[in-house]
Amino acid sequence: MKLNFKFLELMFIGSAAEFDQCLQHDKREIAFVGASNAGKSSAINAISNQKKLAKTSKTPGKTKLFNFFKTKFGYIVDFPGYGYSKVSKSQKKDWARELPKYFSSRENLVGAVLFTDIRNPMRELDLTMLEMLATYDLPVLIVLTKTDKVSKEEGEAVYKKINNSFGDSLNFSIKDNASIERLVKKISGLLSS
User: In CATH, what is the architecture of 11-192?
Assistant: First the structure.
């Protein structure tokens, strides 16, 4: 099947463990947030058509830093996944301090993409993240991941419910080119408008 859209040209630029170490630039950026096993890294690989750009693992919680990916129009900042129990207490404390700092102080941050598993969407930590983003007036796109793991009917029902309750959302699977294209277009729109 021929693809009629362009993948995002993404390049990994670097990581930062703390807000003060984050890359300084003058382009727009969006934050990728979500639970440790929500599929953020897989999504980064899918939208860039690169298998190993973002590290994926069967063990959740691999992203322990702010990871910066450069696009033609700006940056995607992949945040550490939340809710994974094997992360140390000190690491969790660091994140609790560093994440709000990021949202409140990054002037070129134009929005966030919140990834949540369609089989168990918008859990307590997702709702907490959504509330935090709302306090900073950041537009949020909710991406319901792993739609290939549910029936089409179930996927559409969950999408309707989430869209009605929380606003802008889309169904996504790394195995579905149409959903990859939709996400690419949304991200390009956020970064270039």
Answer: 3-Layer(aba) Sandwich (3.40)
